[in-house]
Amino acid sequence: MTKVVGIMLASSNSEGSKSYADMVKACKETWISRKHPDVEVWATYGVDEPTEEADLLTVNEEAGDLIVNTLEHRANLLHKTLVGIEWALRRYPEAEYIFRPNCGSYINTHLLYDHLMLQQKSDYYSAIFGISYNKIPFCSGSCILLSRDIAQLLVDNIDQINLDGWIMMDDVSIGKFLHESGIERVGGAKRVNVKNQGELDRKFDREVYHHYFCHTINPLLIYQTHKLFGY
Fold first, then answer.
1. 89-127: per-residue pLDDT in tens?
2. Are 147 and 127 in contact (CB under 8 A)?
3. pLDDT digits over 189-224, tens only?
4. Residue 198's CATH number
5. What are the residues whose beta carbons fall under 8 Å from the beta carbon of 160, sequence distance 6 or more?
6. From CA 143, how far away is CA 151, in angstroms rounded?
């Protein structure tokens, strides 16, 4: 039974000689390939050229990809996220939690599953707390955790949420809407921040479900984290 669904931010965009496609590939070949049996994970992409004729979302079952008909750009991260979550809620009516990582994270879904099964089943909005932005309390977008009812609340009110990342980034916009809706952040999320191989060797923690590579486009860190977990 699928109790937890991940909607992972994915992209084929590059920064210089480094491509996020390599990060997505590494995630698929490591933590996604060894996911907990009650967890599903989908990589969620935008497109190079959105068209009015195309469906809002298409599914590549074989690749485990969701393709949202929105421009692949940082400004559209929340649009991709909410379209993917809406699909996941329909696809998995038994799912109790949704998590939204990015492809710059290694998620041990076995540890994450155990963590989530100890959390409240409703009004659950959690992650590492972000530094307050204009006094808006929010959870870091590197891996947002939501109970099903909160995920549904976001989807049902998509027209009330700022989706424009030029105005406000996705994690801040989620935090703003939920705070204004009376939903406050829940503590207890875990994360190890890693920027290079030396830091990974020093800071790796096999009890923590989330190792985050801090915007570093380095797939080798994902593969090495996988090895450190003993896979």
1. 999 999 999 999 999 999 999 999 999 999 999 999 999
2. no
3. 999 999 999 999 999 999 999 999 998 899 999 999
4. 3.90.550.10
5. 177
6. 14
Contact at 8 Å (CB) between 39 and 5? Answer: yes
Dist CA 66 CA 12 (whole Å): 13
Residue with tokens 């920027």: 195
Sequence-ordered list of residues with C-beta below 8 angstroms from that of 222, at least 6 positions apart, any chain: 23, 26, 27, 30, 31, 106, 213
Overall domain count for the chain? 1
The reported pTM is 0.96
Question: Amino acid letter at 34?
Answer: R
List the structure tokens of 146: 């939501």
Q: Contact at 8 Å (CB) between 194 and 200?
A: yes
Q: Which domain, by its residues, includes 21?
A: 4-228
